[in-house]
Amino acid sequence: MSMMRQTQWNLKDCTMLRFFDMISDILISTDVPHVDKVYSYRKNALLDAIPSRNQSEFNEKGYRSDSFLHCGDVRVLSIGCSDVFGYSLDKQDRFSDVFCNKLSAQGHQVTNWNLGLPGKSNDYIARTIASTKTILKPDIVLVSFTRILRREWFSDSGKCVDHIYKHKSEASESLNALSNYNQNILNFYLNYKLVESVLSDVEFMFTLSLNTNGEPVGLPDILRIVDANKYVGYFDLLDRADEHHPGRLSNLQLADNFFQKSNKAKQ
């Protein structure tokens, strides 16, 4: 009994509590986390990925997006990987910008929040929507679901680490060994259903960008488990901004697909 009285737990020494303390900003935050605080990009990686190399294209939180501090009467949130970020593409040529400009031409004051980041996964898409929807309160959400092989996990330091199958790190090779097609489809399904549930009261549309070369991995099975009414068609690679990323024409086509499907555009 005396030994029990002498035993005192120091909660600050608990690894799990330290972990949640480090990542609380992105799980239960009342604000959008800063890119540099959460993600492990090399210095100037995002700046090097845009033609202008102009820091002014990035907002106060490090996203290539309008500021989160101000908003118009229509708030549009776009999210995905480098295809949404606009890798190697001029900012005004991204589908998110073209879509928002089309809405603006109808007399709306539109805020263009683009949360696309290079190398991101469907895990990132679902987690970010779930954690920021009540913060940003978007009216329209445009999602580009990405490669089903990708995953994210958090290191002991609280940094988000992206698993991209082509990387040759020991961690990625271990995850590749644990992954298979069925598991990837299941992971997509769970992320999709989370997004669909969180956005049940918001105009939500999506495209798919599953591969940059060859056949889209998983497309037939994915189309069986999604809501066809929310699907605007595949993110077709009509041209290229560089070796891997969709160019201006591809983005113009996708923007038009979203616009034709949007209820707000019909009002």
Overall outline: globular
Strand arrangement within the widest β-sheet reads 2-1-3-6-7
CATH topology, anyone? Rossmann fold
Return the average pLDDT rounded to an integer.
87
Distance between the termini: 72 Å
| CATH architecture field | 3-Layer(aba) Sandwich
Element-by-element helix/strand order: HHHHEHHEHEEEHHEHEHH
Number of strands: 7
List low-pLDDT spans.
1-14
- Work out the helix count: 12
- How many domains? The number is 1
User: Which CATH first-tier class would you pick?
Assistant: Alpha Beta
Report the β-strand fraction as a percent range.
Answer: 5-15%
CATH superfamily: SGNH hydrolase
**Portion of residues in helices?**
40-55%
- Largest sheet features: 5 strands, parallel
The assigned structural class equals: alpha/beta
Gyration radius, in Å: 20 Å
Brief digest:
With 267 residues, the protein is α/β, with parallel strands linked by helices. The protein has helices spanning 2-6, 15-27, 35-38, 45-48, 82-85, 95-104, 122-136, 170-178, 181-198, 219-225, 248-261, 263-266; strands at 74-79, 110-114, 140-145, 151-154, 160-163, 203-208, 231-234.
